[in-house]
Design a protein that fits this description.
This protein has a single domain, classed as Alpha-Beta Barrel (TIM Barrel). The chain contains 14 helices and 8 strands. It has an 8-stranded parallel barrel with strand order 1-2-3-4-5-6-7-8, surrounded by 6 helices. Helix 4 runs parallel beside helix 5. It starts with a helix and ends in a 9-residue tail after the last helix.
Amino acid sequence: MTTAMERSGPAASEIGTAAAELVVSGSLEMGAHRPEDARTIAAVLPAGTPVYVNHLPRHSLADSLSSLVAVREAGLEPVPHIAARRIASRAEFDSFLGRAVAAAGVRKALVIGGDEPAPRGPYADAVSLLREGIFGACGVREIGIASYPEGHPRIPRATLERAFGEKLSLAAAQGLGAYIVTQFSFAPARVLEHCAALARSAPGVPVYVGLAGPTSARTLLRFAQRCGVSASLRALRAQGMGAVQLVTHTDPGDQLAAVARYCLAHESCNVVGVHVFSFGGAAVAAAWMNRYFGQPRTG
């Protein structure tokens, strides 16, 4: 059934308020090698904002501990990325989680497969990591599950869907809360279609929509290629480099507004916030988020 909101569309003020709420309820990421960014971020973000510390191929899990501690000491919520294929052993995983919980008060983690050509240890994907049951035993209470509006460049869609369902089942069986973080995309129609699909397949599971934070064209293209955002890249290349410059040198406000408009028009929407990918520019991303904090909130 079409609602009155869908027929007439929300007012600009309603979209602005909804967009602000998505940012205030959102998160961003920072580099494992830059603990000094934590204080800079904390100066412009509300206390308790989730800050994700990445786990890149050149880093071990232990390399992120200093940044996780710095995030907690700055009054923010530290959330480690945990890439299954980059973990050498169960002992490494168990030791890291125990230290992260004890030293940084970690309560949630984003569990991903990682893009290593071959696993460094016993974990081929996020599902195999979750099967170990270590998260809850170490004190983690929630897990983030990655989702891909444009699909994954190396994993068939059917395999992604099976793994997604199994992750939710494993989390429930282990008493862990679960939420979803989507990959960034510059194809708004794909993002909104994906949000609708998540509302059907995982109703009630909170969704955080990934947004590409402000960055340069060169950096964006490098990360987009690495992350397999193929539909976005094809669309931008078809319009020429000028379109890339336009997208990357303006803020993600149009994408945020599209998500806010979608949330207002769909009662079944389970999108609760946005996750800002910073591409190494956490301070710039945090400053962009800060623009929305003074806006009025509903409720």
